[in-house]
Amino acid sequence: MESWAPVPESFRSGTAPLASPWEELFGPLRAGKVDDMVVVGQLGQSLDGRVATPTGHSHYINGPSGLDHLHRLRALVDVVVVGIGTALSDDPQLTVRRVSGPQPVRVVIDPDGRLPQSARLLANDGVRRIIVTASGVRPSLPPDIEIVALPKSGGQIAPSAILVALVERGLRRILIEGGADTVSRFLTAGCLDRLHVVVAPIVLGSGRVGLTLPPIERADQALRAPMHVHRLDDEVLFDCDLSAQRVPVGRASRST
To answer: Alpha-carbon distance 4 to 2, whole Å?
Structure first.
């Protein structure tokens, strides 16, 4: 396997294919098919589709290879986004630590201003930190935190509105990292170009499920997307191409 170290710079600066296996894994994230954005959702789950135990424990369902894949995704995108539930329950750092690469902007969707100042992702480490809140909410956060206020629709902030706000701030490659409810909302809204699901070889038996989408009546109504499967040691990555259902948000793509 070719070294990972040069991949983040080559990914951003060149047009030549990346060395194998990186082109197969990450080449599709270079440019969008719909507009000038690329939005990828990420989930790590068990064989039986669980992302956490009934108590909410999820560290770590995925093993070293799955976690390395997540950190490589972070190193390639401009910004990583999580919902307030994940921010409160996991207190993630959202940094690139397991592999080499630049640090992404960190974003929390926090409509009601619940994120505490002690949250680790707010650490003043030179990386931009953005909190997306509902209009009229004034979170008590340090002055160096960017606040983006957006209107609620149906009690929530629309995923498309969040993407528009991010692209207006120069953030084009976006990782929707979690939690499962947030990834599900972006998928349902047609706001994902790709979905990476890393399945670990464990069975939890019960607990929180991964994707939760509107119900359908028949199996032939299920979403069927073009898919590539990759081995990550003893884990399996399902890379789903959702660009056919992605709603336009940024400038139209000039690719054919």
So the answer is: 6
Instruction: Tell me, yes or no, whether 88 lies in a domain.
Output: yes
Q: Verify cis geometry, omega within 30 degrees of 0, for the bond prior to 21.
A: yes
Identify the CATH number of the domain in which residue 54 sits.
3.40.430.10
Q: Structure pTM?
A: 0.95
Which of 250, 42, 33, 76 is closest to 160 using CA atoms?
250
254: confidence class by pLDDT, cuts 50, 70, 90: low
Residue 78 lies in a domain: yes
Give 225's contacts (C-beta < 8 A, 6+ positions apart).
Answer: 195, 240, 241, 242, 244, 245
According to DSSP, residue 103 is labeled P
* Residue 73 and residue 175 in contact, taking contact as beta carbons nearer than 8 Å: yes
Domain that holds residue 99: 35-209+227-243
User: Is residue 1 in some structural domain?
Assistant: no
Going by C-alpha positions, the residue among 177, 205, 204, 190 that lies closest to residue 244 is: 190
Q: Say if residues 159 and 132 touch (Cβ distance below 8 Å).
A: no
* DSSP structural state of residue 233: T
Tell me the DSSP string of 55-80.
T---TTSS-HHHHHHHHHHHHHSSEE
Rounded percentage of the chain residues whose pLDDT exceeds 90: 91
Looking at the structure of the chain, the number of domains it has is 1
| Ramachandran quadrant class, 218 (left: phi over 0; alpha: psi -120 to 50; beta: rest) | beta
Nearest Cα to Cα of residue 38 among 10, 73, 67, 86: 73
Judge whether 79 lies within some domain. yes
Which pLDDT score, from 0 to 100, does residue 155 have? 87
**What is the tens place of the pLDDT at every residue in 21-41?**
999 999 999 999 999 999 999
